[in-house]
């Protein structure tokens, strides 16, 4: 099947992922860049999960959430990176229809889950700083588990709705996706269906995902800042802010990249690809670094593991 008109989405057997529009000789550089970043994602997130699981001192709600964040980062980058790297060497650069459905579903699942998880982590920091005496009671194992399971549940519901709506569209103009993975906006451009209702539902769905999570994060940090400013000692303020700075950095990088991508006009698809690269690969690579470099407990746990390894050798 070529790039001729397609009358119905059921006739589509595969899509073509255009990727980055660069000279062929630059594909090797892009491949090496993706390979390096993905290797760092694997190393950083698997390492973070291993540290959290093996060190009893990190058996706290904060690190329970952080372990789940590393798991999510690892898997949603794995949904994107391997296929993108394969396509740098492939002439056809194709992805099957079912593969495209699976990629969009899994990516939406993990990215939405991460948004809700970051909101849960903001609430955790709010309780830790504003109600420290009640922290162990309020942030019980049961509540932490419920927050994580609820994040995955919301991610799954949002992903099912978004994926099913997207692939019930008719793809009539082309099967060439101007992106390096199957995403909603590039797929919309291929459709000859009336997108008004689809865009309204997508906007509503995005609003009920982004607004509640952003409200929880913003309100939590308003209370945190208010509480920290009441601390008289400089050392106390510094310690309180240091527990939040890592989380705030992760939130800023993720939401900044997402907003930049979706606010970029359709006439600048290459800018959207760069923004997508930031939150599909760069953010999962940076998250373990942000938490390990600015977190004393993680650095001490890592040092302890390295000392054990040196002793064995």
UniProtKB/TrEMBL annotation:
Keywords: Cell membrane, G-protein coupled receptor, Membrane, Olfaction, Receptor, Sensory transduction, Transducer, Transmembrane, Transmembrane helix. GO terms for cellular component: plasma membrane. The keyword Transmembrane helix applies. Residues 44-291 form the G-protein coupled receptors family 1 profile domain. CDD domains: 7tmA_OR9K2-like. It is found in: Cell membrane. Its main location: membrane. Pfam families: 7tm_4. InterPro entries: GPCR_Rhodpsn, GPCR_Rhodpsn_7TM, Olfact_rcpt. The keyword Cell membrane applies. Putative odorant or sperm cell receptor. PANTHER family: OLFACTORY RECEPTOR (PTHR48018). Belongs to the G-protein coupled receptor 1 family. This is Olfactory receptor. It comes from Phyllostomus discolor.
């Amino acid at each position: 099947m070529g790039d001729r008109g397609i009358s119905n989405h059921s006739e589509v057997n595969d899509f073509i992922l255009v990727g980055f529009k660069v000279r062929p000789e630059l594909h090797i550089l892009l491949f090496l860049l993706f390979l390096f970043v993905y290797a760092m994602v694997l190393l950083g997130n698997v390492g973070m999960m291993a540290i959290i699981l093996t060190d009893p001192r990190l058996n706290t709600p904060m690190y329970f959430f952080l372990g789940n964040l590393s798991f999510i980062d690892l898997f949603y980058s794995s949904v994107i990176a391997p296929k993108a790297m394969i396509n740098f060497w492939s002439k056809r650069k194709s992805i099957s229809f079912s593969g495209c459905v699976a990629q969009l579903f899994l990516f939406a699942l993990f990215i939405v889950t991460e948004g809700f998880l970051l909101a849960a982590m903001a609430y955790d920091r709010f309780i830790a700083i504003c109600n420290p005496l009640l922290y162990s009671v309020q942030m019980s194992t049961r509540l932490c588990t419920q927050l994580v399971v609820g994040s995955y549940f919301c991610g799954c519901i949002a992903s099912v709705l978004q994926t099913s709506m997207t692939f019930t569209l008719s793809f009539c103009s082309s099967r060439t996706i101007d992106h390096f993975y199957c995403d909603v906006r590039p797929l919309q451009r291929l459709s000859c269906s009336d997108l008004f209702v689809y865009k309204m539902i997508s906007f509503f769905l995005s609003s009920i995902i982004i607004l509640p999570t952003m409200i929880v994060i913003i309100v939590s940090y308003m209370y945190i800042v208010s509480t920290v400013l009441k601390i008289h000692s400089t050392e106390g303020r510094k310690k309180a802010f240091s527990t939040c700075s890592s989380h705030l950095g992760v939130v800023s990088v993720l939401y900044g990249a997402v907003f930049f991508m979706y606010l970029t006009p359709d006439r600048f698809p290459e800018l959207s690809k760069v923004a997508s690269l930031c939150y599909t690969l760069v953010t999962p690579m940076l998250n373990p670094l942000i938490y390990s470099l600015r977190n004393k407990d993680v650095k001490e746990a890592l040092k302890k593991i390295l000392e054990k390894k040196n002793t064995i050798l």
